[in-house]
Please model this.
Amino acid sequence: MLFDYEVLRLIWWALLGVLLVAFAVTDGFDMGVAALLPAVARGDGQRRQVINTVGPVWEGNQVWFVLGGGAIFAAWPALYAVSFSGFYLAMFLILVALIIRPVAFKFRSKRDEPAWRARWDAALCFSGVVPALIFGVAVGNVLQGVPFHFDSDLRPFYTGSFFALLNPFALLCGLVSLAMLVLHGATWLQIKADGEPAERARRIGLVAAALVIVLFAIGGFWVSHMDGYRVVGAMDPMGPSNPLRKEVVTEAGVWLANYGAQPLLWLVPLLGFGGAALAMLGLFTRIGALSFLGSKLSVAAIITTVGVSMFPMILPSSSDPGHSLMVWDASSSHYTLGIMLIATVILLPIVLLYTAWVYKVLWGKVSESDVNKDMY
Amino acid sequence: MIDATLVELSRLQFAMTAMYHFLFVPLTLGLSFMLAIMESVYVMTGRTIWRDMTKFWGLLFGINFAMGVATGIVMEFQFGTNWAFYSHYVGDIFGAPLAIEGLMAFFLEATLVGLFFFGWDKLSKVKHLAVTWLVALGSNLSALWILVANGWMQNPVGSEFNPDTMRMEVVDFAAVIFNPVAQAKFVHTVAAGYVTGAVFVLAISAWYLLRHRHEALAKRSFTVAASFGLAAALSVVVLGDESGYTITDNQKMKLAMIEGMWETEEAPAPFALFGIPDREAQETHYELKIPWVMGLIATRSIDQEIPGIRELLALSELHIRDGLLAYDALETLKVDESNAAARQTFLENQEYMGYALMLKKYVEDPRTASDEQIAMATRDALPNVFALFWSFRFMVVIGFYMIALFGLAFYMVSLRRRVPRWFLRVAFLTLPLPWVAAELGWLVAEYGRQPWVIEGVLPTFLGVSSLTVTDLLITVAGFLVIYTTLAVIEVKLMLKYIRKGPEEEESADNPARLDERFSPAFNRPQE
Model:
């Protein structure tokens, strides 16, 4: 094998981040646009205009989510098992939203009755707001640690409840996530729409950008005082993936330790603020491309901040910290990680290539007058 | 011990969501190729009616595709949400094909399908055609990787249990990909999808022809469906026979079940044409057998024996006892990783450890199981014979019916005789059958694998997540409500667009003149 186990684990930790960022940057604006739909578009013409800015691309964007699921399953099976079964009802809500979304896009304009269309518009808005919130809430819980443990067969048990997920810090993270995706949707509309919807989105986007900055700052302050999770003693980064063979303690400020050791990392959260500020500037000066670049940066940096703060922890256990999942003990086998890396190196560039081509073909703004019968 | 109600509900939810998802998949597989064929004719001949056909069937394809995507997302995550122990236990192997499916196939079809609908004015003819072909390719590649994953559940090759990580791990990835069960399943499943697409187009075209509506479009569609469908129907049955052949090595129990064959028969074994298998009495009543046929199909020889159910059950008991040796050694290794003797015992018996796990249904520690409990676990190796016996037979009958239907249809259109109205009616009434056959096929494959989720490796009941019955009740009810609502909406929309028919004005050719030249097979019958 070209890489040793430690390097492959690091690569797959980074790829996990890349997939989540790619999902949030692409499907994020779809969700943002869906969430903004009732607020920025009045009347059926404008609604269809806004929907059709994402109409041809949301389906491909959503694959980042599906691929994320598949990649976590393949590379981090324990994480896949613990997190999705632990966050069971929250996950169910996300799935409901993601079931409704494709059909809402597809079915909405297939009948003329206003009541029919209004119902699907509401469904679209739901499918944008709910996942955006829940993803943030889930991250908030991961940062605090989740109550789970394994038995000696490595069967995972989650001992929390659905409502325990909705604690203050997690809700704050949910709001960060919602604000950031709304901002992203608003900046997308700057480059893809014109007229009233774009103008309304611009104004909402300015507020969302300010909220991202403020809420992300509060979150950062909170995290600096919160208990983080740290392994006691050395861990073998090449050891077998068995999460029962270590000791973990909780300590305030651990989530900032990586920044202390590697001050350059401060650039990551700074970019989270900087991106939002850039988006604000772009919105203010009505330079759509600048605002979209800013929101992309902000989304990517905020997600990366979470990963960088927790490394090498992936999913800490609040009830049995020793059972926490880490980069060094929750991955697939060396062989599987290697095979999957080869597959990714070959296939991902091809995906990026044709995705870029599709966006190029669809380049340009969608106006209300462009909407025709073939469209959503 | 694991709550039996939780297991039942988890299985119910998986079966429900998987079978629902599979209502949409076969049509996507078949229709995507037919769209590509129709559009190819358009690009080659330049006749706009073929573009109109592509657009019209594409519209119906789109409604179906959205449902397939929506219900497919659930499948990708349901292993984690509801089968957490399964996911941990086999994720090292099972996750890889799912991830590759996303990268290689789903991305391709989902990214390009947007251009299929929105790209007519933005792309050149040839580029748009390429997009359509790539969507078809993507959906078929998607089926390949999903069936590689599913094939491994039926025949878990290329993997071993690792006592250090307490899970199955890949040792030979090529063996997982080229698993003969997966390959046979892939070709059988996609061919069944092509039949579904062909029946869909054939039936709706027949309906138009019966009503003398959109005849130019319907005749051409009917012809495409007849030819595509004949090739597909022949493949399903021939390649289905291939699946039958491979299970003799890997899933002898499933085969014996399908045959209701309790005793090992002398080679070559007969094929049971009719019978009522009785699980309690362990015999098949009113059996009607055709000598030799089963032996020929399953072993392709006249001298190889096919083991009967009783013999296989006796083997199961032996496996359970061997498996207990592995289980005991593993328990020692859990507390003492470096115990060389235990490691050796484990390696020698690990093949059967899954059988020892079957006892966990009755006792916390399988090593303390009584003989009676071992007997109960042995009996669990026997699934519902009656259901399998008949599901299989109905599926096969539908398969042969399809060959006859498409054979006739192809004969009528290609030899340019006229297509009589009775045949159009039969073609229309065939519409639901491919879906019935496809669902029965899944029943045979998945229900037939019970009590295993991974054949011989992991019993189904052990795979579940540690959830409460309430959790499951909420989500089962939730899926039921959403899926039923969506089914009603989708069928209504389909019907609306089928009734409305294609946009006529787009056809620039003179339909009347074209029709005559194209195919006199459909000249109105003089009734």
Chain A touches chain B through 71 residues (CB under 8 Å). Chain A is about 70% helix and 5% strand. The mean pLDDT of chain A is 94.
